[in-house]
Amino acid sequence: METKRFEVESSESNIDWTGKKVTGAHNGTIDIKTGELTVQDGNLSGGNFIIDTTSIKILDITDPDTNQQFAGHLFSADFFSTENFPEASFVITTTDHLESDSYLINGDLTIKGITHGVTFGAQVAISGNKITASGKVVVDRTRYEMKFRSGNFFTNLGDTLIYNEFELDVQLTAFASL
After folding, report:
1. pLDDT tens-digit readout, 84-101
2. For 32-77, what is each residue's pLDDT tens digit?
3. Cα dist from 57 to 84, 131, 173, 176, whole Å
4. Predicted structure pTM score
5. d(CA 11, CA 174)
6. Cα(97)–Cα(116) distance, rounded to whole angstroms?
7. Closest C-alpha among 153, 133, 132 to residue 141
8. One Pfam match, by short name (predicted)?
9. Structural domain 3-176, CATH architecture
């Protein structure tokens, strides 16, 4: 059995996020600090990465003051509490190679010090000393103590309701450790 480790290249990796509410959606990016992917006998077998929650950016709000106000709210205890939890993490627990470049990934997502299992499909291309991987993770924010304007915890929100699930579209590029 041959095992190879690949270091995630943060400058070529990122997360696009989308949060939805009754009246529309917001989107942006989050940086990946570090990470590692493991390949065993030619297939992805494990890995992890660290997410820099202090790097959250909002792309759809162009007014600088409104953007800054919204970012401050995302950094607050209502959402990511970045002062106390400047990092989130994901650790692969199992992989199931389905076919070609398709995998089913199971792992532990930790946000605000709270860990829950998540499962998602991913496309993983392994070519020599390089891996590119992408997948969309749907996260129920209320499981990570982000209850602000959630219909599960508050009533009569009307058009101020924020849906519980947000999406993380993860793109990783990693190179073999030499």
Report:
1. 999 999 999 999 999 999
2. 999 999 999 999 999 999 999 999 898 988 989 888 887 877 787 7
3. 18, 26, 20, 29
4. 0.86
5. 10
6. 22
7. 153
8. YceI
9. Beta Barrel (2.40)
